[in-house]
Write a structure and sequence with these properties.
heterodimer, A: about 110 residues, mainly beta, seven-stranded mixed beta sheet, about 0% helix, globular, B: about 110 residues, four-stranded antiparallel beta sheet, 12 strands, about 50% strand
Chain lengths: ~110, ~110
């Protein structure tokens, strides 16, 4: 079974631009979560989607948004990019939403904002 | 909000030796899950081991085991017979009713020959 895939793997943008990252979960998984990883703040939860609905949201500004499609694929969008948005963005999928469901992580998208 | 603390930014161990990584957490919930994830230089997060809070028995996975002390809110990871491939960042994580994983800052493990 294929793992979680994220595209693109690397991205370079300039301040003020917007960006869309994509995540394809493991087949059959319906929950997708997004995390931001930076050297300063570590790993921080962005949001979680289950059955096309945002179920949980972390403490990030409204510039960060996401959505999930009927095939469980998810996208996250960051508008008006800031230098501080440079990070590794990790996507994780799980079969269900409960805490007991193991989350499987993708390889991440490295975003650099210049 | 739940917080996870890893007090050891870096640890070093010799091949074939045993090392213990520390983790403490703060929560008012009684039902939750704890995890140790490994992140090698490739950045791929890999689940090492998980512990259900309602289980008193400590989880083990081959050379990896945990010491779960619920009352003390402590969750340490022991790696036995360390191998060069164990070198990585190790993250302790908590998952409760909010479903999101709350991660510690990580411990960088160096394995020397």
């Amino acid at each position: 079974k294929a793992g979680v895939t994220q595209t693109p793997r690397y991205l370079i943008k300039t301040r003020g631009q917007q960006v869309t990252l994509s995540c394809s979960p493991i087949s059959g998984h319906r929950s997708v979560s997004w995390y931001q990883q930076t050297p300063g703040q570590g790993l921080q939860f962005l949001f979680e989607y289950f059955s096309e609905t945002q179920r949980n949201k972390g403490n990030f500004p409204g510039r960060f948004s996401g959505r999930q499609f009927s095939n469980s694929r998810s996208e996250m969008n960051v508008s008006t990019l800031e230098l501080g948005d440079s990070a590794l963005y990790l996507c994780a999928s799980s079969f269900g939403q409960g805490s007991y469901n193991e989350q499987f992580f993708g390889p991440g998208t490295r975003l650099t904002v210049l | 909000a739940q917080t996870v603390t890893q007090s050891q930014p870096e640890m070093s161990v010799q091949e074939a030796e045993t090392v213990t990584l520390s983790c403490t957490y703060d929560t008012s919930e009684s039902d939750y899950y704890l995890f140790w994830y490994k992140q090698p230089p490739s950045r791929q997060m890999i689940l090492v081991i998980r512990q259900e809070a309602y289980k008193q028995q400590n989880a083990t996975e081959n050379r990896f085991s945990v010491n779960f002390q619920k009352a003390a809110k402590s969750f340490s990871l022991k790696i036995s017979d360390s191998q060069l491939g164990d070198a990585a960042m190790y993250f302790c994580a908590y998952r409760g009713s909010g479903y999101a994983l709350n991660f510690g800052k990580g411990t960088s493990l160096l394995v020397t020959p």
